[in-house]
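Suppose a colleague, Dr. K., hands you the sequence of a protein chain of 398 amino acids and asks what its three-dimensional shape might be. Before reaching for any lab equipment, you can write down a predicted structure in token form. Begin with the sequence itself:
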Amino acid sequence: MLRDTHGGLRCSFCLLSTRAGDVAVDHPDQVITICADCVAGCNVLLAEDRDRTPLRPSRIKRRLDRDVIGQERVKRQLAVAVYNHHKRTSLSSSELELPKSNVLLIGPTGTGKTHLVRSLARLLAVPLHVGDATALTEAGYVGEDVESLLAGLLRAADGDLTRAQRGILYIDELDKVASRRGPAAHDGRDVGGEGVQQALLRLIEGTTVEVRVSGRGTSARTVQFDTSGVLVLCGGAFVGLDRVVRRRTQARSVGFGRARANEAAGGLADLRPEDLHAYGLIPEFTGRVPVIATLDPLDEDALVRILTEPRAALVKQYRRLFAMDGLRLQVTEPALRAIAQRCIAAGTGARGLRAELERVLLAPMYELPSREDVLDVWITEDTVAGAPVSLGLRSETG
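The predicted structure, expressed as tokens, is then:
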């Protein structure tokens, strides 16, 4: 343990006197003290080391497995895309130029598209901005222009342009900008959908875009945003796309076997870029998103695993909330399956799990913090159906 002339602790690394915010770490032999400046320096060195030695695809996939249940093929596709993207950005300008590994995620609502992207951004420790394509217009007169997506990414990086230019941009609800000629024509999207796709090309292909950044008050500035290092991920439900694929496969199939096999797979087992063209995406756009990943609908077993297995599983979160009031939350296996079945029936997938748990746990979360005699809170299949929760009193359990 190092001390200064006044008896205070010194940082074990830079030997300067410690101050508020510094940390002392217990060691078997002595107390090791590290100041906030040395912590910040270590973080910079670790970040630089991470940039030099990117995670291999297999390790990226294993890390995603901690937070994302199922979707094995999609996680592999994302891992390979991220790894290739890092290799591409590490090349010098004089070397062979490699195309960007942008990804298009297609799947029903509640299958984990946004969750996958957020988990990937946390894993890579890069800024992430999630934008909604439904708010975009071609020129930004009504709604937002596409440059607002980059402005959002810059805000996610706390104004650090260098970090923002190496971040992840996720454009959700991309199917809402499909042109009227596709099956999505009935959704009422204006004719500017194709123009929005054209405007998005600048962000996706890797060019320099002028981005207007608002400052304090009415002041604003313009920055030159290089999108070549931004990994762009797009997502959408693409309702009706399975019918496009089915029409094409049935038109060239003989007999019933092949058509039935494709229908059983949800209609997207044989998805090709030309199907996206028929849906309403322009060829220039699909050509710049080479990785197409289709997410499978989540079945009952997958939803039960989502409730219990990930590091931040919903059941673990609610158990922690109850534990803060001295209560033990017990959820039975039939109750978990009943919750999963309700989400499947409602078509909400994993997105509806929290709403179901809130509905079931509303009464005990409201009443039990005021009671001192309750220890255990049991959620059963009957509770999910509307029956009161079963309580275990402290006198009975103790």
